[in-house]
Amino acid sequence: MRLKSLSAAVLAVSAAVVSMAASADTLKFAKAEDAIKYRQNVFFVTSQHFGTLGAMANGRAPFDAELAKQNAQVLETLAALPWQAFGAGTEGGKAKAEIWKEKAKFDEAAKNYETEMGKLAAAAKTGDLAQLKAAFGPAAQTCKACHDAFRNR
Ligand code: ASC
């Protein structure tokens, strides 16, 4: 394949993946339990990537720019996914009833989180530890804000 058509193909696939993640409405759950399991698992995977990145941002692990970039990219992609699993009738797990009672507030918190994960990925792409450190705190803050308001302990 010629380089030009190869890059066009790569671009088309990336665009498809991005729009799939961005619309985040690609799933139909067979039962509420599956939606709960889905969102909990996305958050679990997220916590593993966030923890790995956080160790570098906080100096608990040596900084590896490539590892940071890859983790942050995964976090950005994952950030779009959980929200489709909080549909009507999927109350339960650690989710507070406020998610459904104050949906606008929940959506806003989710959007803030997605925005900060995007900034975190952009910061990690620079390969500059100072930028990663600067973006990490605000990103963690959006995790915490949502947990404080919408997650049972
Ligand atoms: C993590 C993790 C969270 C967030 C939160 C940020 O690494 O598992 O739930 O960061 O502690 O305040």
Automatic annotation (TrEMBL):
Q: Where does heme c bind?
A: 143, 146-147
Among PROSITE patterns, the record links this protein to: CYTCII
Task: Kindly list the biological process annotations in GO that this record carries.
Answer: electron transport chain
Alphabetized, the UniProt keywords read: Electron transport, Heme, Iron, Metal-binding, Signal, Transport
Q: Can the keyword Cell division be found in this entry's annotation? A: no
What's the PTM story here? Binds 1 heme group per subunit.
A GO molecular function assigned to this protein is: heme binding
Signal peptide residue numbers:
1-24
Q: Which InterPro entries does this chain map to?
A: Cyt_c/b562, Cyt_c_II, Cyt_c_prime, Cyt_c_prime_subgr
Q: Which domain of life is it from?
A: Bacteria
- Designated name of the protein: Cytochrome C
Q: Which organism is it from?
A: Comamonas kerstersii
